[in-house]
């Protein structure tokens, strides 16, 4: 086999490892090797078509775009030949000597990391070209590039550490892969078997696959997104998703659309189950795959969906996109906004339907992707009305389930004119907020907004239908009819209360703008409210999250004149009274999520405990 023109190369270290694993693999579905070769062949033809959009100077421009599989049973050989883009000598060395491909590399990493039997992983990852070594004694790849002046070359390997490259004779453009099957892989040297494998794994490859002497292709040839919905099984949708993303969790749902007006398009879109891409994901960026008449023209198109739906994965294909365009002009062609509008509307509609039909699944969606929609409202106020019906909230009266704003409105009390909300740090803490006291006491529903993104969202979301959204942490004099505490009878007499207020003012000094009575507190001793009723607590939080230097404005401390603790405090004096006042203020800061240094309270709390224990003696 060796002649003077043959050069010997050594596989890169990780390719060697991969080959070792594959050669000794006990993987039972070895048939996937054919799927991988056919998918490479199809990619190669696709790339040729893309090249031909802009380049006239291509070898064999008129040859049929196809894949041919032949078998020689007696010799145990299979040949897979395509009329795709082909490879030059350098490309062969680059592509088949090293693992460029992310999927195979991830396979290797996982196999090493988990130190487990790698067999199970082969099917999951797809190890590309090298999977052929599960069945091959040797492999010979002969290729002729589309570049008219390129020489044909041959790559030969037996699965040991080296491969050979030598000049070859090949008149037509494309790649031919000859496989000598191992003895224990003789089952694949049967035409019917290969046809079955094509139908099972590669039916939707967009180019004809001929097997043996048959004049008719064995595959359906239609891409999955161009296939009628009723001909596709749920398993096929999932497979497609898995293969395009390498996300091994099933998608939450898919949207398969075909429209003719106002634009022609096919789209097959998926909602992943998790917002975070797994470490193996094939998709490096957000964006949809954009095809024009079945030719991939953009791997990550970001102009087909608004930012806030960027987690959607999948494919869009349109007959209306002009073929002879560069990627850049696709972006600027007037068609894109139209496609975007149609696709976005459909996605929103599907989400609304899901919410109606399957609340549980919608909740799963919301938990993962709700924050994207909130961000959408913050970033594109023009879309607020579109997004708002999709929002879900926890509330003080329904803390465990997700409620829509419509549901909130339908449960509003007679005469209630606004939608109440409270912003806080976390769902548990916010339920303990003193601002909620009166609302809890009379059962008025309040939205609990505890994600950082909520503050950003609130800057655009000020109204829902006719109802204004209103924070309950504002001062009393804000004009809205908030519920009031009812225990008027138990109040501290006014004179006593005023002297207590003076004590608070003395102790807290500049740290508060005022100290006064509140009629909104029931079980809490005190709360902090904004001094200026027009101040914007959301904005304060937004600045905090953005890390901007922004001093939280000083607040008013409101006291509960009916609280037993304050009554006792009246009877105390000296140092104990002072430190309790300090602690009342610190605790109020703490529940607001505004305390700059909570651990500083420990020493004081200890002092208070000691005093309490002394009192018990
Ligand atoms: P992947 O196809 O996932 O990138 P493979 O290991 O299967 O990884 O293939 C490596 C590279 O070899 C491909 O990316 C491609 O550039 C090249 N290649 C493989 N098969 C062919 C083919 N039939 N025609 C042209 N190039 C090919």
CATH superfamily of the largest domain: Histidine kinase-like ATPase, C-terminal domain
Main sheet properties: 8 strands, mixed
- N→C terminal distance: 101 Å
Going by helix content, strand content and strand pairing, the class is alpha+beta
Secondary structure tally, helices:
20
Q: Which CATH architecture of the largest domain is right?
A: 2-Layer Sandwich
Q: Quick one: overall form?
A: elongated
Domains, number? 4
Could you characterize the architecture of this molecule?
This protein is of the alpha+beta class. It is built from 20 helices and 21 strands. The strands form 4 sheets. It has an 8-stranded mixed sheet, covered by helices on one side. The longest helix is centred in the N-terminal third of the chain and has 23 residues, at 32-54. The protein is elongated and about 110 Å long. The site of adenosine-5'-diphosphate has 18 residues, from helix 2, helix 3 and helix 4.
In brief:
It contains 20 helices and 21 strands. With 617 residues, it is an alpha+beta fold. The chain folds into four domains: 7-211, Histidine kinase-like ATPase, C-terminal domain (Heat Shock Protein 90), CATH 3.30.565.10; 224-357, Ribosomal Protein S5, domain 2 (2-Layer Sandwich); 359-471, 3-Layer(aba) Sandwich (Rossmann fold); 494-530 and 550-616, Heat shock protein 90, C-terminal domain (Four Helix Bundle (Hemerythrin (Met), subunit A), Up-down Bundle), CATH 1.20.120.
């Amino acid at each position: 086999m060796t002649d003077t023109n043959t050069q010997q190369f050594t596989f890169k270290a990780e390719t060697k490892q991969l080959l070792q694993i594959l050669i000794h693999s006990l993987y039972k579905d070895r048939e996937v090797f054919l799927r991988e070769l056919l998918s490479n062949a199809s990619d190669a033809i696709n790339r040729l078509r893309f090249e031909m959009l802009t380049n006239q100077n291509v070898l064999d421009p008129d040859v049929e775009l196809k894949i041919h599989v032949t078998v020689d049973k007696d010799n145990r050989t299979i040949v897979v030949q395509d009329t795709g883009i082909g490879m030059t000598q350098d490309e062969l060395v680059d592509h088949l000597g090293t693992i460029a491909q992310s999927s195979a590399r991830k396979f290797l990493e996982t196999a090493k990391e988990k130190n487990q039997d790698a067999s199970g992983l082969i099917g999951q990852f797809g190890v590309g070209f090298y999977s052929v070594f599960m069945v091959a004694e040797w492999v010979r790849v002969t290729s002729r590039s589309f570049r008219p002046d390129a020489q044909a070359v041959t790559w030969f390997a037996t699965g040991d550490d080296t491969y050979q490259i030598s000049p070859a004779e090949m008149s037509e453009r494309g790649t031919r892969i000859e496989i000598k099957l191992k003895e224990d892989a003789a089952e694949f040297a049967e035409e019917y078997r290969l046809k079955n494998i094509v139908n099972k794994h590669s039916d939707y490859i967009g180019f004809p696959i001929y097997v043996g002497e048959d004049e008719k292709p064995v595959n359906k040839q239609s891409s999955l997104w161009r296939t009628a919905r009723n001909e596709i099984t749920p398993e096929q949708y999932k497979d497609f998703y898995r293969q395009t993303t390498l996300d091994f969790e099933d998608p939450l749902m898919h949207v398969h659309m075909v429209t003719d007006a106002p634009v022609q398009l096919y789209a097959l879109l998926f909602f992943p189950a998790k917002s975070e891409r797994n470490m193996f994901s094939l998709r490096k960026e957000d964006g949809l795959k954009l095809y024009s008449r079945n030719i991939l023209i953009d791997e990550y198109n970001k102009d087909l969906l608004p930012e806030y739906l960027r987690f959607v994965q999948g494919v869009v294909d349109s007959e209306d996109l002009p073929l002879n365009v560069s990627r850049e002009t696709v972006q600027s062609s007037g068609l894109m906004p139209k496609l975007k509008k149609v696709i976005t509307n459909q996605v929103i509609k599907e989400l609304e339907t899901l919410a109606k039909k399957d609340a549980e699944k919608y909740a799963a969606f919301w938990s993962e992707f709700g924050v994207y929609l909130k961000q959408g409202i913050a970033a594109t106020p023009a879309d607020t009305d579109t997004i708002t019906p999709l929002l879900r909230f926890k509330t003080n009266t329904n803390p465990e389930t997700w409620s829509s704003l419509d549901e909130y409105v339908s449960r509003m009390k007679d005469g209630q004119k606004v939608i109440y909300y409270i912003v806080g740090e976390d769902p548990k803490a916010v339920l303990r907020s003193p601002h909620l006291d009166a609302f809890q006491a009379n059962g008025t529903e309040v939205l609990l907004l505890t994600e950082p993104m909520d503050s950003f969202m609130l800057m655009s979301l000020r109204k829902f239908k006719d109802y204004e959204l209103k924070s309950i942490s504002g001062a009393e004099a804000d004009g809205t009819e908030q519920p009031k505490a009812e225990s008027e009878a138990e109040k501290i007499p006014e004179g006593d209360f005023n002297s207590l207020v003076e004590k608070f003012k003395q102790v807290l000094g500049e740290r508060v703008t005022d100290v006064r009575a509140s009629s909104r507190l029931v079980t809490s001793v005190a709360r902090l409210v904004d001094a200026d009723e027009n101040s914007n607590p959301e904005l304060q939080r937004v600045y905090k999250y953005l890390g901007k230097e922004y001093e939280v404005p000083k607040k008013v401390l409101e006291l509960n004149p009916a609280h037993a603790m304050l009554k006792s405090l009246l009877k105390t004096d000296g140092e104990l009274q002072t430190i309790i006042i300090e602690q009342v203020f610190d605790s109020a800061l703490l529940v607001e999520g505004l305390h700059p240094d909570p651990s500083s309270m420990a020493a004081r709390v200890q002092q208070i405990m000691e005093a309490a224990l002394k009192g018990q003696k």
